[in-house]
Design goal:
- The protein is α/β, with parallel strands linked by helices and 411 residues long.
- It folds into two domains: 229 residues, 3-Layer(aba) Sandwich (Aldehyde Dehydrogenase, Chain A, domain 1); 144 residues, 3-Layer(aba) Sandwich (Aldehyde Dehydrogenase, Chain A, domain 2).
- Helices cover 41% and strands 19% of the residues.
- It has 14 helices and 16 strands.
- The chain has a seven-stranded parallel beta sheet, sandwiched between helices.
- Strand 3, helix 6 and strand 4 form a beta-alpha-beta unit.
- Helix 6 packs parallel to helix 7 and helix 10 packs parallel to helix 11.
- It is globular.
- 49% of the residues are buried.
Length: 411
């Protein structure tokens, strides 16, 4: 089945790669309009998915559930994607050699992209729209827990393709019930060009371990906020609370708070109390336990845990260098933040922390393609391939080099 779907997707590639921006944008905008028009139907399908989601963790249920605001967010994200500059055909660089050869490096689609994801139905629309606008075909394999929601969103995307006169095979859904199909996707070298997993650690680890196709992914979101002694107290408290508690189940949520040992005692106590008062469990080292009797002792495993829940580990560190060292030892190269008014401290952190996203005086919850102005994202990449951070249109292209000559031969 996977080979047949992938071959159909490859057959659609020439039409997609050659499609003008306006045609691709029409497909995506029509899909957005269909999502809005069928919003009530989508909410009913999603409610059925949530009702059947027995045994799922609270984090996965949060990712699965839709409401009116989230449905509008999906549609608005598609409209934004449709209005972004088209990367396909963009000339990245031009140069000429002394022998007269003229070189140009041009963006082209990646090809057939397989997306394997869990729970979050919005990925169906986001991934399809981003792949389409970047001239790619995609095979979507969502989780069975979101089957009803995903099917309806796929119908909306299909309506957009039909309206724009683009091949139906540009966006296809892999049945969710058969786990063997995931293995077939991972083994489809030569038919699928890139696999992008979005989901829990178990899913991503399996994909990275078993794939014979290049993988663009992140495994964990063990994200830190470091509060320097120079931080503005009010801003630090607000950012820490938002980073952890706005939505605990997203991959951009703060998992560990690092506090400068030289920070005022009042600020330290305020930071810890704000989390505790927000119904967040705090697991701290000895210095943090001394700040508030409600803090429970942290164990070694806490510094390497992505909770995706209202739990935070908190440690005191020896200034910015102590924070950088802690992050190097325990971070997952996803998203890191420094709260500091001292520009030298901030610049040292920004330059030396190795992560896909590094923020200064802003919540880690901004680790999202929509917040970057990309409309949507297909995932956060933390590896060292061609794309890193929120993967959107440019991240779904590669380049080729065109060489124009006048008959030159090489000596």
């Amino acid at each position: 089945m996977i080979n047949d779907l992938a071959r159909a997707a490859r057959a659609a590639l020439p039409a997609l790669a050659a499609a003008p921006t306006a045609q691709k944008a029409r497909a995506v905008r029509t899909a957005a309009a269909a999502i809005r028009a069928r919003g009530t139907e989508l909410l009913a399908a999603n409610a059925a998915d949530v009702a059947a989601a027995v045994g799922l963790s609270a984090a996965l249920v949060d990712r699965l559930a839709l409401d009116g605001l989230r449905v509008e967010g999906i549609a608005a994200g598609l409209d934004t994607v449709a209005g972004l500059p088209d990367p396909v055909g963009e000339v990245i660089a031009r140069w000429q050699r002394p022998n007269g050869l003229q070189f140009s490096r041009v963006r082209v689609p990646l090809g057939v992209i397989g997306i394997i994801y869990e729970s979050r139905p919005g990925v169906t629309a986001d991934a399809a729209a981003l792949c389409l606008m970047a001239g790619n075909a995609c095979l979507l394999r969502g989780g069975s827990e979101a089957a009803r929601s995903n099917a309806l969103l796929l119908d909306c995307m299909a309506a957009g393709l039909r309206d724009a006169g683009l091949p139906a095979a540009a966006v296809q859904m892999v049945p969710a019930g058969d786990r063997a199909l995931v293995g077939q996707m991972l083994a489809a070298h030569g038919l699928i060009d890139v696999i992008i997993p979005r989901g829990g650690k178990g899913l991503v680890a399996r994909v990275q371990a078993d794939a014979r196709v290049p993988v663009l992914a992140h495994l964990d979101g063990i994200n830190h906020v470091y509060v320097d002694a120079s931080a503005d107290p009010d801003a630090a408290v607000a950012v820490v609370v938002n980073s952890k508690l706005r939505r605990t189940a997203v991959c951009g949520s703060m998992e560990t708070l690092l506090i400068d040992a030289a920070a005022p005692a009042a600020l330290k106590q305020q930071l810890v109390a704000a989390l505790l008062d927000g119904t967040c469990e705090v697991r701290g080292d000895a210095a943090v336990q001394a700040l508030d009797a409600r803090v429970v002792p942290a164990v070694a495993q806490d510094w390497d845990t992505e909770y995706l829940d209202a739990i935070a580990s908190v440690a005191e560190v020896a200034g910015v260098d102590g924070a950088i060292a802690h992050i190097a030892a325990h971070g997952s190269q996803h998203t890191e933040c420094v709260m500091a008014q001292d520009e030298a401290v901030a610049e040292r952190f920004l330059a030396r922390v190795d992560a896909a996203i590094v923020l200064h005086n802003a919540s880690t919850q901004f680790a999202d393609g929509g917040e970057f102005g990309f409309g949507a994202e297909i995932g956060i990449a933390t590896g060292r391939l061609h794309a890193r951070g929120p993967v959107a249109l440019e991240g779904l292209t590669i380049f080729k080099t065109l060489v124009r000559g006048t008959g030159q031969v090489r000596a």
